[in-house]
Amino acid sequence: MPLQIVRNDITTMAVDAIVNAANETLLGGGGVDGAIHRAAGPALLRECRTLGGCRTGEAKLTKGYRLPARYVIHTVGPIWRDGRHGERDLLASAYRNSLELAAAHRCRTVAFPLISSGVYGYPKDQALQVAVDTVAGFLLSHEMTVYLVIYDRTAYDFGTRLFPDIAAYIDDRYVSAHTDLRAEQARRDLFTAPCAAAMPSAAPSLREAVSQLDESFSQMLLRKIDEAGMTDAQCYKKANIDRKLFSKIRSDVHYKPSKPTAMAFAVALELPLDEARDLLQKAGFAFSHASKFDIIVEYFIARGNYNIFEINEALFAFDQSLLGG
Q1: Distance between CA 123 and CA 190 in Å, rounded?
Q2: Nearest 5°: phi and psi at 107?
Q3: In 3-state terms, what secondary structure has residue 168?
């Protein structure tokens, strides 16, 4: 998955580069900045002293030293005032310049904290939105895996506040007992029906049954990509899918994706709900109102919103798995 939101300690991430939410001196501080300097050791501070500081929205690179990451990219986010002093543009610039620096050093994996959301006071929900929007835009033209690392999940528990309409949609549809009564009754009817009625008068041979197999998930996916006039790259990027995973799907007619992967392709292809259900069924899954994950995705599809990164923001806010592979 090219863009992932994860709960982790960024100093333990084994990636090509981690991003440090630094201050303009680059000489260490509190929060993420202090944690990275402690984990990297004193050599990091010695190198930072040679850089001459860093202006807000810009980024500079050092070695990782004792960190699992090869590099540390130091960037300075804006201090939140009221949102009317260019904070969003400066925050987006901090992400964009960090990503461009990572690409220039051929980094394939990069981990970001949620810049400016700590002592700099940027509202966490807005900080997350800027991060997702900026990173998503960058990934449309770059092959890279980016992690947004949230250290304390409880500090970001804003699902019902940020997405009140989705919370109401879930409440209206979520089956708390996780039981579809109609499906349960159908199963009972099946097992209590007379055997003669349940069996066809002349069962087909194995050869006939195999010959009647419908197209697989991979076949349907590739057909729909062609019908949509999309390239492979356009589709897997819109689906937040790694190129290597897409290659496996393309080369294996019997490939069985995970449910988040199948859902992601339905979103990327902008399928209406009935066609999304068909594609999901090919992978052996179905939409269920006993699953908050399914309900949230259904909410967006039903409203014609196929922005996978916005969907993933909502899924993260409600502590669900993200779309992608």
Answers
A1: 54
A2: -80, 135
A3: helix
Cα–Cα nearest to 57, from 140, 10, 120, 107: 120
Q: By the 8 A CB rule, do 287 and 298 touch?
A: yes
Rounded alpha-carbon distances, angstroms, from residue 25 to 22, 60, 97, 156: 8, 12, 18, 28
Which of 210-214, 246-250, 268-272 shows the lowest mean pLDDT across its residues?
210-214
pLDDT at 150: 83
- Record the tokens describing residue 22, joined without a space: 């630094």
Mean pLDDT lowest among 132-136, 197-201, 275-279:
197-201
Count of CB atoms situated within 10 Å of the CB of 267? 23
The sheet carrying 17-21 orders its strands as 3-7, 145-150, 109-112, 17-21, 71-75, 59-63
Decide if 274 is catalytic: no
Alpha-helix residue ranges (DSSP H) falling in 202-272? 206-211, 217-227, 232-238, 243-251, 259-268
Of the residues 33, 214, 232, 319, only one is catalytic, namely: 33
> pLDDT value at position 154?
55
CA neighbor of 115 nearest in space, from 136, 138, 132, 103? 132
Q: How far apart (Å, rounded) are the C-alpha atoms in residues 93 and 51?
A: 19
Here the tokens at position 148 are: 């947004």
